[in-house]
Amino acid sequence: MDNQNLNILTAGYSVHRKPLHVIHTDGLDHYLIRLQTSGKCRTRLNGKIELLEPGDLLLFAPKEPYELIIDAEENQLGETTVSSGDYYIFLIGDWIDSWWKKQKRPNKIKVPLSEGIVGAFRQIMLEQQRISNPSPEIAEYYLKILCMDIDRNLLQQPLHAYPTYLAHRLKNYIEENAAFPFKLEDAASHVGISVSRAVHLFKDTFNTSMIQYTLEVRINMARERIIFSPLSLEHVAESSGFPSYNYFHKVFRKRFGMSPKQYRQNARTNE
């Protein structure tokens, strides 16, 4: 399988602020791996339109009908906005053919927005964007790691244990609402349990607190926007759920060892 060819046609990161409707009734000419990282949109699965939220990974083979709808959503503040962020990879080749056929693959699975998965998408994209790239196989290695990570997450679904199911619903709530102010009470109420139980259940399942995970989601959301969007740093902080730019600046510097401005400058210098 390692000796088979693999061709990454394109890889990128999209932030949508305007409505979009893409439809391929006869399917794509290539494979698509797409990860929703922020906001919401919709796709057609098995003939029905389904909601896509952060952590939803789409897998489409060539000739499979594909439809994507990005339109206005009402946020927690009652505002109607268009907001959707995603990584995408289009690819073809014998290697991906063999990987796809190893097992039955649903068009949508839920994956964690971890540095492992998000980082693989990011590295593949950055490698593909290099003007002069003497080592194209690096992106292929990242792609293979991503596919193995997808396989591992596929084996873990569905989640049968009820307490674990509740913990993942809490995690999904945080990922879906991290861009907006919310309280632990909101997350606990969403799954119908007390705050105390929610806090302990989340900690036992993921070995981190709900507050710390919320901060991690927000800081990673902000980092993607710093690198790949034209938003001002103040708008990045606000749209990533931080109550103030000063707090965002402090947290970001502690996490990455430099200010948001320096991080953006370094990222763009290394492109």
TrEMBL record:
List the PROSITE patterns. HTH_ARAC_FAMILY_2
Q: Which Pfam families match?
A: AraC_binding (PF02311), HTH_18 (PF12833)
Q: SUPFAM superfamilies recorded for this chain?
A: Homeodomain-like, Regulatory protein AraC
Q: What's this protein's name?
A: AraC family transcriptional regulator of arabinose operon
Query: What species is this protein from?
Result: Fontibacillus solani
**Which controlled-vocabulary keywords does the entry list?**
DNA-binding, Transcription, Transcription regulation
Q: Which domain of life is it from?
A: Bacteria
InterPro entries reported for this sequence: AraC-bd, Homeodomain-like_sf, HTH-like, HTH_AraC, Tscrpt_reg_AraC-type_HTH
Every copy of the HTH araC/xylS-type domain together lies at 168-266
MF (Gene Ontology): DNA-binding transcription factor activity; sequence-specific DNA binding
- Transcription among keywords: yes
Signal peptide residues on this chain, from the entry's feature table: none
